[in-house]
Design goal:
Shape: globular
Structural class: alpha+beta
Radius of gyration: 14 Å
Helix content: 10-25%
CATH architecture: Alpha-Beta Complex
Number of domains: 1
Number of strands: 8
CATH class: Alpha Beta
Largest sheet: 4 strands, mixed
């Protein structure tokens, strides 16, 4: 895969984390909103744009949480918060894909406890010092 840096967002509300469900052929999974940087775009600008595209929220970056590597290069995760007077998140779209081939299928506040084994959620929890005790 080509080198394509990406940025993704963490939005937390009442012990829940905002995630999007991706269905791409045989692959189906929940992930944090985010995606690849466009030419000349900063990680911070990319995460703001990606959240707007995928979950229809205007957000501001609160802080950088972690940086890691994935098969396409470097990825950075940011804690973000909705701008004042924001509506509830709703399913957006991927402008790089045709309308009849969208892979974004759902947006949902997931309990952090339920998603604690997700690779990115685990790193978010570590960065924020959140411990989830599973029963």
């Amino acid at each position: 895969m080509n080198d394509r840096p990406r940025a993704f967002a963490t939005l937390i509300q009442n012990d829940n984390i905002l995630m999007v469900r991706i269905v791409d052929g045989e692959k189906e999974f929940w992930t944090l909103p985010g995606g690849g940087l466009e030419n000349g775009e900063s990680f911070e600008d990319a995460v703001i744009r990606e959240v707007l595209e995928e979950v229809q929220l205007n957000v501001k970056v609160v802080k950088h949480l972690f940086t890691s590597q994935y098969e396409g290069g470097i990825e950075k995760c940011y804690l973000v918060e909705p701008m004042p007077n924001s509506d509830a998140p709703t399913l957006g779209f991927d402008p790089e894909l045709p309308k009849d081939h969208q892979v974004l299928k759902e947006v949902k506040w997931q309990p952090m406890k339920k998603m604690a084994d997700d690779i990115h959620v685990k790193e978010v929890m570590r960065a924020l010092g959140i411990e989830v005790i599973k029963k």
